[in-house]
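ok so for the tutorial part 2 we go from a plain amino acid sequence to predicted structure tokens. step 1 is just haveing the sequence, like this:
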Amino acid sequence: MEEVERHRSQSRGALSDLNVRTQSRDSGQQRLDLKPAFSNDLLKRMLQKENLQQAWKRVKANKGAPGIDGMSIEQFPAWGKANWAQVARSLQDGIYQPSPVKRVEIDKADGGKRPLGIPTVIDRVIQQAITQVLMPIFDPGFSNYSFGFRPNRNAHQAVRYAQQCIKQKRQFAVDVDLSKFFDRVNHDLLMTLLGRKVRDKGLLKLIAKYLRAGIIDGQQFIASQQGVPQGGPLSPLLSNIMLDQLDKELENRKHLFARYADDFIILVKSRRAGERVLSSINRFIEQRLKLQINREKSQVVKVKDSQFLGFTFKAGRINWHDKSLIKFKRQVRKLTNRNWGVSMKYQLFKISQYLRGWINYYGIASGYQKCVELDHWIRRRVRMAHL
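step 2 — the prediction. this is what the tokens look like for a chain of 387 residues:
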């Protein structure tokens, strides 16, 4: 226990070095207790002009496709001038009804598909405005080892922190795969967790409506009795509120872990310890959080065989995972296909765009020689496309 506490102390210093804004649970609670009425008029605060303007700027910057109403980002300002007053009144009166989200599918790293829900631009603005009001209430109490969808935190920090844990003689990783997490969040449990800090019944009622708004898949309406569809500005915060219970449980058990959204890794010293942790955490997740575990993918492995946010760890260094490299090559082949039917100028632009994005994310990994080999391979692909 003393060793774990000593590591926790070292880790907090390391997190600070990574430019992570950390704040203790107690100090966060103290901040909230100074203004107990703060959470009683949140709907009013959400509808303040400054908050809505900031929400619109964020939604506009994130761009995104139209929802089921077909309204684009570019069309929203004109629509808002003519109709926003009516929307605001319906929100104040508690009669606003969110639109169902539009379901699309995006590629996963393993070649499968992940469902994504696209709300209308109107609902994206409202959800973003809600998020901006709730974030200061919930974020200070979140775990220091939760890195996803939080101010001043990112995936690179999560990966580097996991690397630091491994260097403390943690040579085994407990990989727990939450099966379709965003589709299976229990609404009653989530609303209970929200109600612990939010006293504004009007805002709670609005959030519940968003949870139950439903999904349009093609021409079919699907009722949403559980889950928080990925794609809306509110979903990341709701997922963190839900999984904060898991973070606190892991902290109480003195485990070393890092979590980014529904992807998390627990580092232990032995396979036997890992098996015990995997079994007990599976029970906690299924019984307390009412979520499902993918038992085929959940396992205890050596850290060199683990996968966390597209990376693995070998000899204390961060490396790309093999699946990440496979996905990279698949996309490069697609972008350098000579039968694409677009101009070479556009093809080179898309290739360059993809490569910059990939390097910005995976550039923290060690692998100079691999980069040299990939560079030669990409050049050959481009020449083949040009001929």
